């Protein structure tokens, strides 16, 4: 337990931890400020009146629209629009709205831009993005903490005082995971509060009912587990390569060119469902719960694509297997290889 606490203190007191912490907080505050600044409760009455005047001017130059507005039976007697009355969207429209929608009349909304930040609709996906970035940062921090000890010789000194290598590796990995969990909880709570404040001030909160909480908590929990897996992978790569650059190179290499190479290879091989080779696809399936991939190459004359469904369980098996594989390799390497 003392070793675990000392590892936690060492991670917390590192200069890189402070830098990453400041960057994460600044990024989260910046995101909330941006969402609040570009959002509004709605256009002003003057802006709506000006936009409506422009729409009326354009409509005066559209003879089809004018004819539609004047003739209440326009859709009945026009062979080109006889299908309109069977359209479900037509049922809740008055005649002028139907003319605008189906014939192509202009509306005030076409000449004015207004964005309202909806906490109910957008906050879950913003929180997922925040936690994914948090996972990437903790992944780099964990690999840096372990790699720096190998580079400085501190790992060899630790093994003199703590000859139980598995206990030492467990304490370091556990400390990294604990730090990641704390960061995920803190960023999720702070992000929720800041985005809620932005929506209350400049947007709309919406109806945060039971199904919304269930869906949002599911997304957040799965993304938090993904962040823990990323942290464990970063620590394992650093322990396996015994250098921060090894883990950083693998991470940066895949983020920058790895997925591009996978897509290029899959295109040249003309294989079905090439997106299944990308870890981004599996990570997305893990977070959202389900992803459907379509393959049109064998659709034939009926133009019906083949469908491949990836569930969160399938994604969890693959992503968890990758983390466990590198964790097992790092454990074996640390247990068998010399400290030098």
TrEMBL record:
This protein's record includes keyword RNA-binding: no
Membrane-spanning residues where?
16-38, 125-148, 169-199, 219-238, 245-265, 309-334
Per UniProt, the keywords (alphabetical) are: Membrane, Transmembrane, Transmembrane helix
Q: Report the domain of life of the source organism.
A: Bacteria
| Descriptive protein name | ABC transporter permease
* Originating organism: Glycomyces endophyticus
């Amino acid at each position: 337990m003392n070793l675990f606490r000392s590892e936690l203190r060492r991670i917390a007191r590192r200069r890189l931890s402070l830098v990453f912490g400041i960057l994460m907080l600044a990024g989260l505050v910046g995101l909330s400020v941006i969402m609040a600044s570009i959002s509004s409760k709605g256009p002003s009455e003057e802006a709506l009146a000006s936009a409506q005047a422009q729409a009326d001017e354009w409509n005066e130059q559209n003879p089809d629209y004018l004819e539609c507005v004047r003739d209440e039976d326009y859709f009945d007697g026009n062979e080109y629009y006889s299908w309109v009355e069977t359209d479900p969207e037509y049922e809740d429209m008055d005649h002028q709205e139907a003319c605008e929608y189906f014939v192509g009349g202009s509306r005030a909304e076409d000449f004015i831009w207004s964005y309202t930040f909806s906490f109910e609709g957008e906050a879950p996906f913003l929180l997922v993005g925040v936690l994914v970035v948090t996972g990437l940062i903790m992944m780099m921090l964990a690999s840096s903490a372990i790699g720096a000890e190998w580079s400085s010789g501190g790992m060899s000194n630790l093994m003199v005082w703590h000859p139980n290598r598995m206990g030492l590796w467990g304490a370091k990995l556990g400390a990294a995971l604990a730090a990641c969990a704390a960061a995920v909880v803190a960023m999720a709570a702070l992000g929720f509060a800041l985005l809620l404040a932005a929506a209350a001030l400049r947007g709309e909160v919406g109806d945060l009912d039971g199904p919304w909480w269930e869906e949002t908590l599911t997304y957040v929990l799965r993304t938090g587990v993904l962040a823990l897996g990323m942290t464990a992978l970063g620590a394992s790569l650093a322990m396996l390569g015994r250098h921060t650059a090894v883990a950083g190179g693998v991470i940066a290499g895949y983020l920058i060119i790895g997925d591009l190479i996978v897509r290029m290879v899959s295109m040249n091989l003309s294989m079905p469902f090439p997106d299944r080779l990308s870890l981004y696809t599996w990570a997305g399936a893990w977070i959202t719960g389900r992803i459907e991939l379509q393959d049109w190459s064998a659709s034939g004359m009926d133009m019906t694509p083949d469908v491949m469904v990836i569930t969160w369980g399938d994604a969890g098996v693959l992503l968890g297997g990758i983390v466990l594989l590198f964790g097992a390799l790092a454990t074996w390497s640390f247990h068998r290889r010399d400290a030098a």
